[in-house]
Amino acid sequence: MLRAIEETVEYIKRKTENFKPEIGIILGTGLGGLVKEIEVEHQLMYSNIPNFPISTLEFHSGKLILGTLNGKKIIAMQGRLHYYEGYSMQQITFPVRVMKGLGIESLIVSNAAGSLNPEFKKGDLMIIEDHINLQPDNPLRGLIESELGPRFPDMSEPYKRSIISKAIEIAKTVDVKCHKGVYVAVSGPNLETKAEYKYLRLIGADAVGMSTVPEVIVANHAGLPVFAISVLTDEGFPEELKPFNLDEILEAAAKAEPKMTKILTQLISEL
């Protein structure tokens, strides 16, 4: 893995004239609008980057965007990778390793998720303060070179509390309703049954999705502070459950995305 990371890092450095990002960003489903706020200096297609997995979803563009946002040098993944696409956990999280190798000092993650908390409605934002991992594998399983991090990384603060506090204050300042809650990660790609939604709520989750947790585990393993935020695009309330509609999910994400962008653009300037 170390050789693959080094090869990929060196390729990106050559192609971007040794651009040195301070902050890494992973943009989730329907949440690529933040890219419009970036003063773009370089763009690289995943398919052209050595060792980089390719996003297989038609609504994930699969680009690395490098540039400046609110005075900070950033590298953004426009389109993430998912376990249900058939990738291993190591492949899904490989970009986090590469961004760390390029020099990022913190990681911001966004996603689209389904609400499990009746007080959190479709179109709301939820800052993730903790998570429950129900995915069937772990990106740290197997041999891990000691240079990448410890064998047993601590997860007592997977999402940096000081950054969460800043984001909450920013949300108030820009008048955006923003909850805090627990995100549960499942493998997908099917949506949950009524009984599963009920179970996930009973074990303490406020929102459910199919991403984020592997990247957060690896970021913590690599010593990177993490901030994560969900756009709640549907509601998994068993008594009111409606059939899944992808177009409605993407529409809800697009409508809520400007609110997320308001928070993240200001947050980035303060990191």
From TrEMBL:
Alphabetically ordered keywords of this record: Glycosyltransferase, Transferase
GO molecular function: purine-nucleoside phosphorylase activity
Residues annotated as domain Nucleoside phosphorylase: 23-268
InterPro entries: Nucleoside_phosphorylase_d (IPR000845), Nucleoside_phosphorylase_sf (IPR035994), Pur_Nuc_Pase_Ino/Guo-sp (IPR011270), Purine_phosphorylase (IPR011268), Purine_phosphorylase-2_CS (IPR018099)
Protein name as it appears in the record: Purine nucleoside phosphorylase
Quaternary structure and partners: Homotrimer.
Family matches, as Gene3D superfamilies: Nucleoside phosphorylase domain
Enzyme Commission number(s) from the entry: 2.4.2.1
SUPFAM superfamilies: Purine and uridine phosphorylases
